[in-house]
C-alpha cells in the first residue's frame, strides 16, 4: 500500500516537472494553463494546487519569474531597449512587465538597464545566473527592502 502511494507521488512529481520544464522551454509563448494541464491529464485547478505545493508558486508566477530572469540577462547585454526586451520574453504589456520586474528585482527595468544590471564582470555565467536570479519578496517585507535581503534576526531573540 505504501509502495503504491509512493509510486503515485513520484508519478505526480514527474508530471509537474514536465510541466515546469515546458514552461522553461516555452517562456516566450503565452501560457495556456488548460493545455498544460490537459497534456498531463490534470484539471487546471488541480495543476495550480499541486504546482504551488511542489514549487511554492503558481505556474503563472513561475512563468513570470522565468521571463524576468531572461529579461535581466537581455538588459545586462545592453543592446536592446526595455520595450524590445519586454516583447522578446513573451510579455504583451509593458506596464505589467515593468511592474513584475520591479517587484522581483527591486528596481524598474530602465534603471536596471542603465546600471548595466548587477556588476557580473569576471564572474562565470553559471554563477552570475545564480547571483542575479530574481526572487519573490518575503511575506511582510516592505517593497523598499528589495528581494535579495536576508531576513533580519528578531532583536528579541538576541
Would you kindly provide a written description of the structure presented here, covering whatever features stand out?
The longest helix has 24 residues, at 2-25. This protein is mostly helical. Mean pLDDT is 82; it is low at 141-158. The chain contains eight helices and no strands.
Rg, please? 18 Å
Structural class, from secondary structure content? Answer: mainly alpha
Largest sheet: none
Quaternary assembly: single chain
Q: Please estimate the helix content.
A: 55-70%
Strands, count: 0
Which whole number gives the mean pLDDT? 82
Give the helices and strands as they follow along the chain.
HHHHHHHH
Query: What is the beta-strand fraction?
Result: under 5%
Can you tag this structure with a few keywords?
mainly alpha, 158 residues
Give a short summary of the structure.
The protein is mostly helical.
How are the SSEs placed, and which strands pair?
Blueprint: H1 2-25, H2 33-39, H3 44-55, H4 59-77, H5 82-88, H6 94-105, H7 109-114, H8 125-131
Amino acid at each position: 500500500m505504501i509502495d503504491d502511494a509512493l509510486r503515485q507521488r513520484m508519478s505526480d512529481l514527474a508530471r509537474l516537472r514536465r510541466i515546469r520544464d515546458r514552461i522553461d522551454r516555452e517562456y516566450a509563448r503565452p501560457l495556456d494553463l488548460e493545455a498544460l494541464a490537459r497534456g498531463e491529464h490534470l484539471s487546471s485547478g488541480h495543476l495550480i494546487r499541486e504546482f504551488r505545493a511542489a514549487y511554492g508558486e503558481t505556474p503563472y508566477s513561475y512563468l513570470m519569474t522565468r521571463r524576468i530572469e531572461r529579461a535581466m540577462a537581455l538588459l545586462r547585454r545592453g543592446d536592446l531597449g526595455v520595450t524590445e526586451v519586454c516583447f522578446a520574453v513573451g510579455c504583451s504589456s509593458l506596464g505589467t512587465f515593468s511592474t513584475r520586474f520591479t517587484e522581483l528585482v527591486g528596481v524598474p527595468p530602465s534603471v536596471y538597464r542603465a546600471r548595466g544590471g548587477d556588476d557580473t564582470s569576471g564572474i562565470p555565467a553559471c554563477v552570475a545566473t545564480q547571483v542575479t536570479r530574481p526572487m519573490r519578496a518575503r511575506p511582510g517585507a516592505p517593497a523598499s527592502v528589495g528581494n535579495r535581503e536576508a531576513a533580519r534576526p528578531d532583536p528579541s531573540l538576541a
